[in-house]
Amino acid sequence: MVKTVLTFGDSNTYGTPPAHARGENRRFDPDLRWPGVLANALGSGWTVLEQSLPGRTTCLADPIMGVHMDGQLGLRIALESNGPIDVLTIMLGTNDAQTHHARSAEQIVGGLASLLAIARSEPYQTRHGGFDILLIAPPPILEQGTYRDTAMGAAEKSQAFAPMIAALAAHWGIAFLDAGAIIGSSPIDGIHFSADDHAILGAAVAQKVIQL
């Protein structure tokens, strides 16, 4: 029986390349972005569903991009419009660290906890027949390049992501991957990943998924 992975995230799951200028609307090809690499690594016994939205936060509307950037809303839609799934991956937090959201690292990780509460809730677990969760800590943000003006203080906050998200995953008893231990944000815009880093991340996620 074919198993299904649902990848839930923001532009770094969507496959947005490092941006040289604001307003670019580019995306790596399916076989280059990490969910595609994941699908190829897992093979024919798996299906990978991509549910990613550039700008998505853990639990916040964006004053410029809109209320639909709220990850709580997006996760409910994803879980109710797909399935059954066997594994859910979540990689979020980067957009929450933008200066205009005024969130601490603790608040951002609290937003991730709200997503775990939704995903682990009885209605959604029952709907899908139960599924595992892999929580991925995004790499630290660099306060340089294209999006520097929205990232004041984001580098320091995002440095705290990995240990705090690891502790959250351990508390919930779910799988964890520190993306920042194997890849980094591009110095071009301080946020997005190169194609090579997508390949590395996709392979690492595949290893985690197989172990679940």
Structure description:
The protein has about 210 residues and is α/β, with parallel strands linked by helices. The chain has 8 helices and 5 strands, in the order βααβαβααβααβα. Helix 2 packs across helix 8, helix 3 (about 70-80) packs parallel to helix 4 and helix 4 runs parallel beside helix 7. The two termini are about 15 Å apart. The model has no long low-confidence stretch (mean pLDDT about 95).
Give structural attributes.
212 residues, alpha/beta, 39% helix, 8 helices, globular, 5 strands
Q: What CATH architecture do you see?
A: 3-Layer(aba) Sandwich
Task: Return the structural class.
Answer: alpha/beta
> How many individual domains?
1
The topology string of helices and strands comes to EHHEHEHHEHHEH
Low-confidence stretches: none
| Text of the CATH class | Alpha Beta
According to CATH, the homologous superfamily is SGNH hydrolase
Q: Oligomeric state of the chains?
A: single chain
Strand order of the largest sheet: 2-1-3-4-5
Return Rg in Å.
Answer: 16 Å
Discrete helix count:
8
Sheet with most strands: 5 strands, parallel
Q: What distance lies between the first and last C-alpha atoms, to the nearest angstrom? A: 16 Å
Count of beta strands = 5
CATH topology: Rossmann fold
Roughly what fraction of the amino acids lie in strands? 5-15%
Shape: globular
Percent helix range: 25-40%
Mean pLDDT: 96
